[in-house]
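SAMPLE LOG
Freezer: B-3
Tube label: C17
Construct: single chain, 103 aa
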Amino acid sequence: MEEAEIKASADQCIERFGRLDMLFNNAGAGTLSSVEEVTQTEFRNAMDLLVGSVVFGMKHATPIMKEQGFGRIINNSSVAAIRTHMGGYLYSGAKAAVSQLTR
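STRUCTURE (predicted):
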């Protein structure tokens, strides 16, 4: 996940369609590490993809939507955010973060 790429996507939408009415954040990827084996790289990769993409999507969509006076942002989390044994622990933690950011 690169913030510049997310911003470029929002900018391309404005250039092509003149508006950005909806953002649907739906990042996902498995995280297989256990708490005893996780590396800093695995942690950063999971959080960048699963949480960072949502944060920076909202960051770059919100000003556009405010300026046009309309817009909707939908952040797709997971049942893993609230239940145990529904995904890897990094995945579950990241999806819980998405749920909280949405609130």
